[in-house]
Amino acid sequence: MYARVTISQGQPGKTDEVIRIYRDSVVPAGKQQKGFKGLYLLTDRKTGKGITIGLWETEADMTASETSGYYQQQVAKFKDLVGAPPAREGYEVSIAP
C-alpha cells in the first residue's frame, strides 16, 4: 500500500468548510479512482493547517491519480481556502492496522 501525504495551510475559521468539501466531494471522487483505499484528514482549527493522507493499493495507482488530473481537481476545490499550493510527498506504507 502507498500513501500520498499533502500538507496545506488553510485559513483559520474555515476548517468546517474544508471538512465538508472533503466529506461531500473529495472522498466520493476518490472512491471512483482505481486503487483508492481511503483518506484521512487531520486538521488544526487554531492555525488552519491540514494534513491529508490518501491511501492507494499500488504506487502505480497513486501516480495515476496525479497524472490523470484527479489530484489537481481535488486541490482546486480548496483554492479559496488555502494561502499557498500544498506540499505533497509519497510513501510506501510499511505498517498498517
Describe the structure.
This protein is an alpha+beta fold. The chain has a single domain (2-88), classed as Alpha-Beta Plaits, CATH 3.30.70.100. The chain has 3 helices and 4 strands. The chain has helices at 15-31, 59-67, 70-76, and strands at 2-9, 36-43, 49-56, 87-92. The mean pLDDT is 95.
What keyword list fits this structure?
97 residues; 3 helices; Alpha-Beta Plaits; alpha+beta; four-stranded antiparallel sheet
Task: Give a brief outline of the structure.
This protein is α+β, with helices and mostly antiparallel strands.
Helices, by number, come to: 3
Instruction: Please indicate the percent range of residues in DSSP E strands (runs of 2 or more).
Output: 25-35%
Order of helices and strands: EHEEHHE
In helices, the fraction of residues equals 25-40%
CATH architecture: 2-Layer Sandwich
Q: Biggest β-sheet, characterized?
A: 4 strands, antiparallel
Q: Supply the CATH class.
A: Alpha Beta
- Silhouette: globular
The main sheet orders its strands as: 2-3-1-4
Distance between the termini: 12 Å
Our count of domains comes out at 1
Low-confidence stretches: none
Overall pLDDT level: 95
Assign the CATH topology.
Alpha-Beta Plaits
Integer-rounded radius of gyration: 13 Å
